[in-house]
Amino acid sequence: VRVGLYVHIPFCRTRCHFCAFALQIHRPDRVQRYLAALAQEIELHAQRGSLAGRQLDTVYFGGGTPTVLPVEQLIAILDHVRAAFSLTPAPEVTVEAHPDTVTGESLHELVRAGFTRISFGAQSMNDVELLSLGRRTSSNRLRAAVSLARAAGFTNINLDLIYGVPAQTLTSWVATLDTALSLEPTHISCYALTIEEHTRLYVDMRRGDYAEPDAVLQNEMEDAAAAQLAAAGFLRYELSNYARPGYACRHNLLYWQGEDYLGLGPDAQSYLDGRRFGNCADVDRYCHALATGQLPLASWEVLSPEQRWRERIVFGLRLLEGVDITLVDQVPADRTWRKTLADLVQRGLLENQTGKLRLTKLGRRFADSVAVALI
Ligand code: SF4
């Protein structure tokens, strides 16, 4: 079983209008306190042998906006991770980035320090849409940041895109995809916009400034992305993720293939040896717990063998190739669960083909309901 490490950086310069994540606006004093807490969390896991001598195959710096931190702070965290745990000879080390928070020099330093993959939160290549999402940047800045990243030596570049943005049309979404492809990334993630409570978009929508995203249009946009990216040589390997051959995100595959991961930082989740645990989401509470020498755990459970099998299947179904049918056969006998599975096949949401159980095209539309039924 492979193992990966997630490092959460819960700071951004400003909050996007669709974002409901627990984060803080970046301020150097907040970051100092946070980095001390994060270092303490790394030490506590090292002392407890949480990874028990295992080698990390992936490290993922996510947020938030990791690159809002000065590059030396990011490198210091990675160095601490290397000193406390061991890594495989060729790990995938990803950093999420905002185009406005990188320079040619900082990108070179990240590559020199061992980061191998960069993921830009592009969201849209249309400046009016970026404004409606509260992204104070422009498509030109993204274009410049991607070319700086490539010049610095990043050969594995992801762009995150969102569809169903207020006032977005099918034509403008197709144009965003075209522009994104012209930047020659190795990986593209396409997420449907969801309006979360307590976000600026939610408030604007309730006031009547925007209509809710249109589900039919979002489905058309999803189909357009699948067709356009396939034509450009990208493989859709997960419901929202497309990659050039050989560039699927190794870290995210850990989650979908039921492998192990340790998460550091507020709200980070971990799954190790059948135990699942999660940190408290609040940054202040997280820092306070670690300042007193405690792991900031908010939840902890040991999964039963049944739960472990079911979860492997449910997460694995997010992958377009599905899960081995032999895995399904190993789920401890449970007549109700097997009947639910048979019903989903009967209703055309799941199919059993060439030794794999997978979502059908219809099933992909209702992936969340299928997951709820099977978990
Ligand atoms: S950059 Fe990402 S994490 Fe930060 S506010 Fe925007 S959506 Fe949220």
Question: Could you characterize what this model shows?
Answer:
- Strands 9-10-8-7-6-5-4-1-11 form a nine-stranded mixed sheet, with helices on both faces.
- The chain is globular, with a radius of gyration of 21 Å.
- It has helices at residues 28-48, 71-84, 104-113, 127-132, 139-152, 170-182, 200-206, 215-231, 250-256, 283-291, 305-316, 325-330, 335-346, 361-365, 367-374, and strands at 3-9, 11-12, 24-25, 55-63, 86-97, 117-123, 157-163, 187-192, 235-238, 241-243, 260-264, 269-272, 275-279, 297-302, 323-324, 350-353, 356-359.
- The model has no long low-confidence stretch (mean pLDDT 95).
- The protein is an alpha/beta fold and 375 residues long.
- It contains 15 helices and 17 strands.
- Iron/sulfur cluster binds next to loops.
Strand content: 15-25%
Quaternary state reads single chain
| Rough outline | globular
Number of strands: 17
* Strand order, largest beta sheet: 9-10-8-7-6-5-4-1-11
What is the residue-mean pLDDT, rounded to a whole number?
95
Low-confidence stretches: none
Determine the N-to-C terminus distance.
22 Å
Structure characteristics:
43% helix, single chain, nine-stranded mixed sheet, 375 residues, 17 strands, alpha/beta, globular
Brief overview:
With 375 residues, this protein is of the alpha/beta class. The chain is 43% helix and 24% strand.
